[in-house]
Amino acid sequence: MLNQIVFEYPLAFLIVIPFVICLYFCKPKMDAIFFPTMKFLKKATKKSMLLENALKVLIILLLSTALASPIIRDEISVKNDKGYEISLIIDASGSMAQNNKFGIVKEIVGDFLTKRVHDKIGLSIFGDFAYVAVPLTYDKNSIKRLLNRLQAGIAGSSRTALYEALFLSSNLFKNSHAKKKIAILLTDGMNNVNNIPLDVAMKTVKKYGIKVYTVGIGNAGDFDPNVLRKIAQESGGKFFHANSKQKLKEIYNTIDKLEKSKIKANKYVKKRYLFAYPLGLALFLSILLLFRKNRELV
C-alpha cells in the first residue's frame, strides 16, 4: 500500500501507561503550610496541576511516538526487462468513429493495460498515416492518459495506413532484449496507403521476432481477413474477428491469457522516517513546561 504510515516499534506506546499510573499514584510528599485562604489556593493549584499533568502526558506520548519510529512506507515495484514487450497498434481512422468503435476500443485497451502490470507497452496509431504515440514503457498511466485524449480521425480520417503502422511499431523492438515480443493490431479497414509494402513490414516483424495478433473489428467486408490472417500466421500469432463490444473484450482477455507473463516484479520498501516531528514537538513542550515551572518558583 502506498503512503502508508506505520510504526516500526509500536510497543513503545506502552510507556505511557506506567507513566500515567505513576503520575496519579506516586505523588511526592511535601511539607504542608496552612493558610486561611487554603480553599482558594487548592482550586488554583488543582487547575495548574491539571494543565501541568496534561502537558507531561502529551510530552511522554510524543516521545513514545518518536520511539515507536513512525514511517511512511512506499512499496515500490521494480519491473524486470526480461518480461513481455507489447506494441498496441490501433486504427484511428474516420471509420472508427462509427458506432463509437474507437471509444469502445479505448475502454477495452485500458482494461488490458491494467492487467499487464509487469510488461513494457508501446502505442501506435494509424489513419492516413501512422505514428508511434508512446514508445515501449512501463508507465501504463501515461499511455492511459494519452489514449483517453485520442479521437477517431486524429491521424487522418479518409485512409488506412495499416502496413506503415505495422512497420513503424515493429521498429520499436529494434533494441529490445525481451524474450517475448508481441504486437496487437486492430483495424476496421483495409490498407489503402502504399508507403510501405506488406512484405517489407513482415520482414521487419520477422527480423525482430514479433508475434502479431490481428483483430478485425466490424462487419465482414469492412476489413480484409485474408491479410490479417496472413500477418498473424506468418508471425506465429492469431487472427480474431470482433463484431461486438463483448466479443472484442473476450479477444483481449484471450490474448492476455495466451501471453501471460510469469515474471514477477521485484519489490522493495522505501521508508521515510518521521520521528523527528514528534520528538521536536516534545522538546518544545518540555521547554515550555520548564519555563512555566521556573516562573512559579520566582
Question: How would you describe the overall organization of this protein?
Answer:
- This protein has 298 residues and is an alpha/beta fold.
- The protein has 2 domains: 4-74 and 268-297, no CATH class; 80-258, von Willebrand factor, type A domain (Rossmann fold, 3-Layer(aba) Sandwich), CATH 3.40.50.
- It is 44% helix and 21% strand.
- It is built from 9 helices and 9 strands.
- The strands form 2 sheets. Strands 5-4-3-6-7-8 form a 6-stranded mixed sheet, with helices on both faces.
- The chain is rod-shaped, with a radius of gyration of 34 Å.
- The two termini are 54 Å apart.
Helix content, binned percent: 40-55%
Q: What is the chain-wise order of helices and strands?
A: EHHEEHEEHHEHEHEHEH
The overall number of domains is 2
**Structural class assignment:** alpha/beta
What is the CA-atom radius of gyration, in angstroms?
34 Å
CATH fold topology of the largest domain: Rossmann fold
Descriptive keywords:
298 residues; alpha/beta; six-stranded mixed β-sheet; three-stranded antiparallel β-sheet; 9 helices; 21% strand; rod-shaped
Short summary of the structure?
The chain is an alpha/beta fold and 298 residues long. The protein has 2 domains: 4-74 and 268-297, no CATH class; 80-258, von Willebrand factor, type A domain (Rossmann fold, 3-Layer(aba) Sandwich), CATH 3.40.50.410. The chain has helices at 16-25, 38-67, 101-115, 140-149, 162-170, 198-207, 225-235, 245-258, 276-297, and strands spanning 4-7, 70-78, 84-91, 120-126, 130-137, 180-187, 211-217, 239-242, 266-273.
